[in-house]
Amino acid sequence: MVDQAPPLREPAPAKLNFYLHVTGKRDDGYHLLDSLVVFAGIGDRIEAEAADEITLDYQGPFADLLPAPEQNLVMRAAKELAAIFDIRTGAKLTLNKSLPVASGIGGGSADAAAALRLLIRLWRLPPDDPRISKLALSLGADVPVCLMSRPAVMRGVGEEITLLKAFPELPIVLVNPGVEVSTPAVFKKRDGDFSDAVDWPSEMRESDAVIEHLTKTHNDLETPAGRIAPEIADVLKALDQADGARMARMSGSGATCFGVFERIEMAEAAAAQIADTHHNWWVAAARTYGA
Question: Average model confidence (pLDDT) for the chain?
Fold first, then answer.
């Protein structure tokens, strides 16, 4: 038996695509993306304790919607990390699932990334080992940027990440209409030309500048996702009409949408009002991580 110690904890913050342009498609079928990725001060949480084997348990309001632990990306991340570094001990992992599943805010990717960060600490691995970033990309396009969990521009198939030198904390409201949306299905519904990449500044300190630049961008997946889940239009309308809202947009492949607000008090009031009106929607107010 291994010695017991207090569990380590690691947040898995929600990932938001403030814009998402599909810029091309590779011969192997993978789409090329250009996206401003920002993380919110709300998300899932992973806990880990030393153990003889790698196991995964679930807690939280959305735990019942998760696949069997052996099919979860967290387990794959843990087992492949152990194999790469020839780890002979295990870890008792617990995922507290607070974010809706299949919702366009990187829940699974954020969970896997948090598990990697946590196990690097538990197993005392070198965090800058290049094999870790290679593993992250093999787990999914969003895992590398979620591993960093800092404001960044992500390009390619997720492997080109440029961390921003300065970015403001922004009050936001997240809303999911309780509808799961399949990312592959959204891409299949997409038609039309590809979009250009955005020349996003590496330093942006004021929210006004962020909003101004965002008006020149969009989410290429918003229209095709809306064909699959018409509720997305209702969510965007509710956010747009809320007092203090500066913009509203869908994140990732949906169906979660976000609104940027003038002040956190306005975001909290809007979240409460939307939740009172739409009892079956998941609604949360938060601030984004700054840089």
Answer: 96
Q: Which residues are known to be catalytic?
A: 15, 142
Mean pLDDT for the stretch of residues 141-161: 96
Distance between CA atoms of residues 267 and 247, nearest Å: 12
Q: DSSP character for 255? A: S
Return d(Cα 76, Cα 65) in angstroms, integer.
Answer: 18
**Other C-beta atoms within 10 Å of 144: how many?**
25
- Rg of the chain in Å (alpha carbons): 19
- CA–CA–CA angle 33, 39, 45 (5° rounding): 120
d(CA 137, CA 160): 10
CATH number belonging to domain 8-163: 3.30.230.10
**CATH number of 171-287, picked from 3.40.50.740, 3.90.960.10, 3.30.750.24, 3.30.70.890:** 3.30.70.890
